[in-house]
Records
---
Amino acid sequence: MIQLTSLRVATTAVPEATLPVPVLLLIAVLAIALLLFLIMKVRMHAFFSLIIVSLLTAVAAGVGAKDLLDTIVGPFGKTLGNVAMLVGFGAVLGRIIETSGGAQVISEKLIGLFGEKRAPLALSVASLLFGFPIFLDAGFIVMLPIIYTVARRVGGGLLRYALPSAGAFLVMHALVPPHPGPVAAAGIVGADVGLVLMVGLLVGLPTWYVAGYRLALVLAARTQMISVPELLGKPKENQENPPDFGVVLGLLLLPLVLIFMNTGFKTLQATGHVPEDALWVQILIFLGNTPIALLISTLLAMYLLIVRRHEGPIGGALEKVVDDALAPVCSIILITGAGGIFGGVLTATGIGGAMATSLQAVGMPLILAGFLIAVIMRVAQGSATVAGTTAAGLMAPAVAASGDQSPLALACIVVAIVAGAITLSHVNDSGFWLVSRFLGISTKTALSTWTVIATAIGVMSFALCWLLYVLVA
């Protein structure tokens, strides 16, 4: 397990408020309102909006000029210290598998195994596997030509194949590291990324099957049949030198195996079953650290899918793949860092402590409060990343103040927050428009299908998280 306690934006001791609690709470409400105004009405980029609001919040709460820069820069660096590597390595790994034809190989293999009658299940399973390292928007676009081809060949309407695939991508993108939402929330709250990965998969897989697959099929059957639009053309039928299915599958599973190995040996160390000072144990734990596991998998993918299969000079090909992968995620990385700033300011000013006191007075469970705050932020401004990081920043001081959260309970809180951050996807969410436009469906149809699926995934994963939290808290 990767212990991210050092990456907490909140400190273990909640700062004493310098202003009355009602004043601090009013500042928090005004800060959130200003943040939403800048993002939604002014259309300012979330990165700048979060920094501006963080600065104004710090000043309003009484942070002096000499401490202002440290209050901003410190949380930003701590948040990015882990997020940047995880998101960057994950993006490069996904891009390599995408450009090598790995997604198509996996899809065709699974359709062959499941049969055409179960093609929706095959595509959904393929999206689960491919969705581990690649974001929803990029992964869904990569899968679309394959979905179009299967829909044309098998019949039954486009939504029968597209919605289960999109639902699978959403589950992985929302709940499972190395995606930015759960990684950033884990860093801000102080949870272990390895445990967040385990909890995300534990609640995500049944959620995918019920809400992302079964519900998607029901909604597709109840919706007027949609023909395949002519948007992306067709996938290459006979790609030269396609990668081997086993190689691609192994590359997707390798980081999971390494991370689980880390978690397992950490647990065995804690229970005294393996010696803590044994060199071989330390090496295996090191290899299973999430950034190292993703780095190993990415370097191996470079060799197996590019270097070994490429003819001629290889440097330019590798550089292009990496540049193409990293460019789109720079904005996401900066937003997560800015979300860490907001959380750090709330902690440093005592606003977080005031919120923690209020939550304790109301008696609302931390995990429920985190989920509801994320839902409110999601509905208000649309971005799941902003909703998750903001909610995590608001909850971090309350979590720190509680003082009795086990590592597994912290992981449950993180997954509950990111579950709320995907709930109620609607017209202010870029993912909503990506799915609706590429499927050629109306806004009304998207609201009755995609919004319902996203909400069901968010609510069910939260419910399972809360159940697990009750059992372990």
---
Amino acid sequence: MNMRTPSLADLQQAMRRSLLEGADRGADEDAVSAVLADGLDPQARLNIYRNTAEGVLVKAMRLAFPAVRRLVGEDFFEGAVRLFVGVAPPRSAWLDEYGEQLPDFLAQMPQISSMSYVADVARLEWQVNGVLHAPDVPLLDPACLVRLDDDALGSLRLSPHPAARLLRCDSPADAIWRAVLQEDDAALRAIEFAHGPVRLLVQRVAQGVDTLRLSAGEWRISQALFTGETLGEALARAPESDGYALIAAYMARGCFAQASHIAGRARIDQGSST
């Protein structure tokens, strides 16, 4: 009886299982059967591919999480990433999209359980990675809101710019991140690692990435705006805060890309990009 010749899709799936699951899980058998020896053992060929694939992902994580890598050390970081790849393999060919789950993975590692701030720094670096690679869309021009009366303003929804994001951390991740990347040992020693939480606006700017700390009230307003609540609803989240000043500051910083009324009529300004 002749064995069925595997299709290209079969071979691709076998290779994927082999590269991502590894020989210790018995995933190599199907892939090995389709590899020509040609002077080199098929298993050895697969091992080369596997090491290359893991190496590419480790390099991508080094670029995305430079401060985390320095905090935990090169050897630990590489080992942690290789473990991470085994449990959370990439689902996309776009490497900039890979790594979102790494902060939670690090938070579960017993080896660094006494360094809970590491996961927070990783969460910040993931947002930094996100805003750096966010699309360049036009900014909302504040002038388009000038003629709106109070009722119209209150019913307005502001869509955040893709290069502006919010993040809450239990530790002062922004200060740690900055000190580590600047190699400022004095600043790092001065940080109260248990001091928190911090609420951050993370935004791409002309010089790179900026972080802005928000008060508890500013955070509630910001969260409401960034998740689609109207301007009136967002301001009601923190009546003790100067919400209009915050929104004006956000406008000046270019945090919004579009404005629309509850009825759905959009007012979009094709202004500058960030």
